[in-house]
Amino acid sequence: MKAKNDVLTGQKILIGLFSFLLVATLVIVAGVEMKKSISEAPEIEITAESKQCISCHDQKGIAPGVVEQWKMSKHAVQGIGCLECHSAQKDDWDAFTCPESDVLVARHPTPKDCAECHEQQVQEFAESKHAHQFWVLKNADRAIFEMPIATRHGCEQCHNIGNIWPDKSVGECDACHTKHSFSKAVARQPETCGECHMGPDHPHIEIYTESKHGNIFKAKGKDWDMNYSTADNQNIPIEAPVCTTCHMDGNETQPMTHNVSARLAWESQAPWSYRTVWNEEKLGSWEKKRERMEAICKSCHAPDFVEMYMLTADLVNLQYNEIRRFFVKWTKRLTEDGVIDRIQADGKFLSNPVLNGWDEEPEKLMYYAWHHEGRRFRSGALMMGADFTQWHGIWEMQEDMIELMKFAAEAGYKEAQVWVDTNDPTKFVPYAIYDVPGNAWGINTRANLTPYLYKKFPNYWEEVRKNVKAAFERGLLSEKQWRYWEKRYQNKEYYLGTKFNTDDVFDIYSKRNDIDLEAMRKQVVEFEPPAKMFYMPKGKRISGWKFNRSRTNGRH
Amino acid sequence: MRVKEWLLERFPIDYQKFVEINEKIFIKEPIPYHMKKWFYAMGATPLIIFAFQVLTGILLTFYYIPSPEMAYESVRHITEDVRFGFLIRGIHRWGSNLMVIALFLHMVRVIFTRAYRPPRELNWIIGVLLLLTTLTFAFTGYSLIYNQLSYWATTVGTNFFKAVPLVGNTVLNFLRGGENVNPNTLTRFFTIHIGLLPPVMTFLIFLHILVLRLHGVAEIEGHEGEGHYPFYPSHFYKVIIATLFLVTVMSALSVVFPPGIGEPATPDQTPIHIKPEWYFYPVYRILKLLPLSVGIYSLVAGLIILTFWPFIDELFKQKMPKVKMNYVFGTLFVGVILILTVWEAMVF
Q1: Domains (ranges, CATH) in chain B?
Q2: What is the DSSP-derived secondary structure letter of residue B178?
Q3: Residues B247, B55 contacting (CB under 8 angstroms)
Q4: Which pLDDT belongs to residue A143?
Q5: Which residues contact A155 (CB under 8 A, 6 or more apart)?
Q6: Sign of the dihedral defined by the CA atoms of residues A176, A180, A183, A184, in that order
Q7: Do A21 and B223 count as a contact with CB atoms less than 8 A apart?
């Protein structure tokens, strides 16, 4: 009987133990899963002083929206209330006593306040070009052209991002991390960057929108959670990049950074494209910076694509310099010869000697060819904005070049007159040329059979090679890039697609094109409406009437 | 007494006989003595919870609309707007969870006491069918919420069929009413959940109890012949007390951990982490660990062993009379469920 009871006790212990384990574990798992299905509003706990600020602001209706925005912030959830950022000491530059209490309040939290918790980010920002004071270092005199009141809500609104505050901290965190919600999602939204990086002189948001990246974001981005963290070398969690993905966010190999200059290899906004030397002691050479950017590209793109894409964009930058050189040569010559004058006062020239002034046609042409069109040309090439490289870029630069030469010809320069008068197509490239066999997108078997320069100059690629090689030797291209260029050059018939014969396919389209042209000719070109024209100055019809296309297209 | 006579006039039955039968079947049902102890007396728990599921389920259908456009919204409406809707839904949801847990507990007791031993093997098999029906109930019910989690859990859950040889794709297509989880799936699952499964379940429960009654409740092995006592009042009140306890537990859980509504299902947007409901975690984990076909075959093998365990156990008993294989099996059963569930719960 005792043995029987022992067995029974053992059995009961086992059943009891396992039942307890099952109930406890499975109820906990079920409870945790149930909890996951709920999205709760987080609890907010803050200090009594901050509570006082909030209730008073709410009751008196003093910017109550600020409080609502703050409630949505991570700050609120983490118990960071008002005075954590807005506290002030008696002699602080922005201290004021709250009229409803005795609390001393800082009117303008600065990066110094943010750095209390976000030291690394503030530091990185201060070492970035976002914090660079170039616009007050160099071109302050343009405020005579755009008088000060216009700059208040003009230049200054954007360029305040590099503000030097009275407390000597630098930057403006809330330019991107909009107060008082400080949402990461808002900071990541391309339109946040686009608040400033837009318009005729640096249409980065427009270029992004045109790009495949921007297109995917537009189509699917609304479903993406943009509050993600990239602090710990994780995969990029979104399908296509936004601005911050490439310029700031981390990926598997790159740490997140608030130094937007850490991955940029060019000063492609400058009058001349040159390899950046910004903060080299900390960020390394331009090649190091480019490596960082490429590491981001390679999260999604094949290394070969990245290599070719970037090399092409780099050659666009180098090409820009040569066009620029032509503008500078002629503008300098016209200035030295006294045909045009530089702005000056008290025996001193104003502002940047490169800018020269804004009141004479060649100066304006040179300015636009750099500051608007030249930047669009380069930024478009770097950021997949084909239309900006093409129509808003090189096309308008070339037009400016024609105008410049016409001006010089009219001013009596024989050399310019020869340029204007000549019918030789090579007149449009009166500067050194860069090129690369093929493109990053694939092999186009026909595109490279047509360019005039290829046909006219059998030694075209040998000449171009000299320029590319010289650029490499000058440090404007890396050795890796030079080798990559050489690889394509050695096998250029392949990359240019000229070694493949696709005439039969091309002929089909060629015939279709003939049909199209014929249709156009028959439908409209040979058509003349029968009624007499009403416009007949001096009783004669005018033939060969030309419309002057507006030259200010795309300029502000 | 007038009412009784009035009724007997309209239902002319032999009242005396009716009372006798009632007494024999219910009131005086012989309950073995060991069931005086709570420890052994909870076999009715899944049945009690099932009764609550039926009740709360009917109430939920008053508001639930099984269409892709309205399903999520109606669940939200029940949870957020309808008075006590959150509680009814909470009890239904927690009821489903607790029913699965209660079944596991019931199985643990039956395995360790070898209550399935001959001649009760078939009732074990009916029990396994009840477990599978309950899991199907839970699975189809979860899909009806039509939020992002449940939509993708349904996708993952039905994907298993792909790996079943020969008929897998046909069954999958039949269940989903198409290639992917789509509007057809929702209506199908709704019909299965409220139309097909309740009668199946009721029938299986009836069979389970019928077989139980025909044999009588199994006595503890080695303690046979210790006597019986009548169902009423002692065991009857045990069931009533268990019912009240379960209402309290389910209500409390529904208040402390109310089920949320999550994000609406977006079929073209696969979330990063897809998971089925927790009671499928062991299955899900095995399928993640092993190549799909190996996983499926292991699961089928496991299911066959589980179903026919009473016979297998008997074979062991004859070959190795001294080894308690039911202890080994029971320990493995609980161990596998616990380890795989916790493992899956802890990883993404």
Answers
A1: 40-218+230-275 (1.20.810.10)
A2: S
A3: no
A4: 67
A5: A135, A146
A6: positive
A7: no
- What per-residue confidence (pLDDT) applies to B274? 79
**What residues contact residue A425 under an 8 Å CB cut-off, 6+ apart?**
A452
Distance between B103 CA and the closest CA of chain A, angstroms: 11
Q: Please provide the size of chain B in residues.
A: 348
Query: What is the per-residue pLDDT across B22-80, written as a single tens digit (0 to 9) for each?
Result: 888 888 888 888 888 888 888 899 999 999 999 999 999 999 999 888 999 999 999 98
How close is the nearest chain A Cα to the Cα of B292, in Å?
Answer: 25
Residue A345: enclosing H or E segment and its boundaries?
A: strand A344-345
| Nearest Cα residue in chain B from A15 | B109
d(CA A400, CA A368): 8
Nearest-5° Cα angle at A77, A71 to A82: 60
Query: What was the ipTM of the complex prediction?
Result: 0.84
- List residues in chain B touching A: CB distance below 8 A: 39, 93-94, 97-98, 100-101, 104-105, 108-109, 112-113, 147, 149, 220, 222-223, 253, 256-262, 266, 269, 272, 277-279, 281, 327, 330-331, 334, 337-338, 341-342, 345
pLDDT in tens, A256-287: 999 999 999 999 999 999 999 999 999 999 99
User: In this structure, which long-range contacts are made by residues B214-217, counting pairs with CB atoms below 8 Å and at least 24 apart in sequence?
Assistant: B215/B119, B215/B120, B215/B123, B216/B30, B216/B32, B217/B31, B217/B32, B217/B35
H or E element in which residue A266 lies: strand A266-267
Q: Look at residue B204 in the predicted model and tell me its pLDDT.
A: 97
Those residues with Cβ within 8 angstroms of residue A506's Cβ, 6 or more apart along the chain or in another chain? A446
DSSP A348: E
Using DSSP bridges, classify how beta strands A104-106 and A95-97 pair: parallel, antiparallel or unpaired: antiparallel
**Residue to substitute from B278, B279, B322, interface A, most A β-carbons within 10 A:** B278
- Give yes or no for residue B136 having a pLDDT over 80: yes
Going along chain B, which residue ranges are E strands? 30-32, 228-230
Write out the two tokens for B239.
């069931």
Measure Cα distances from B203 to B139, B294, B306 in Å: 20, 34, 21
Residues in CB range of A210: below 8 A, 6 or more apart: A384, A385, A386, A387, A388
Q: Which of these, B58, B94, B95, B63, lies nearest to B79 by C-alpha position?
A: B63
**What DSSP letter does each residue of B215-251 carry, written as one string?**
H-SPPPTT-TTS-EEEIIIIIHHHHHHHHHHHHHHHH
Residue B6, φ and ψ in degrees, nearest 5: -60, -45
Counting residues of chain A whose pLDDT is more than 70, the rounded percentage is 92
For A538, list phi and psi in degrees, rounded to 5. 55, 30
**B112 burial level (CB within 10 Å; 0-12, 13-18, 19+):** buried
Q: Are the beta carbons of B278 and A237 separated by less than 8 Å?
A: no
Q: Look at residue A547 in the predicted model and tell me its pLDDT.
A: 47
Instruction: Give the residues of chain A that fall short of pLDDT 70.
Output: 1-5, 39-43, 138-143, 350-357, 538-556
Q: How far apart are the first and last CA of chain B?
A: 66
When scoring A6, A21, A33 by the number of chain B Cβ atoms within 10 A, the one with the most, hence best to mutate, is: A33
